[in-house]
Specification:
single chain, alpha+beta, five-stranded mixed sheet, two-stranded antiparallel sheet, 2 helices, about 30% strand
Amino acid sequence: MNNFEVVWTERNMVSEKLKYGGCPDLLVKKYNKETDKHEMIMIDFKTGKGIYPETILQMGAYDNLIFETQGFHCDKAMIVRIPKDNQKIEVKTFSSSQLKLGFKQFDLLRKAHLNNFKLKKIFEKRKRSK
């Protein structure tokens, strides 16, 4: 493990552009001997009963926050699930292209949520004017 370097832990970030925030758990830099380059790897820890498909949306949103606030995308991300009982630790790894797809879906849902909020306001105005 001597080729890993902790860059930061639990960094709160906000997207001023898209108006959302998050706090990834850990960013490490790992030297890749094969490519002779460093990889930036985001790691998030979970203690729930499983790793769910929606997790990729969260990781994609975190990757976008890192890009907006620090100027780079992660090369990969890892979810590490640490069970509360004696079960085996579970790890799921996502590539940079999977993070981008996760962010794309996150952004679609974010926009739908904002539109839903606007539609509710329109409905409330019509209800009051009657």
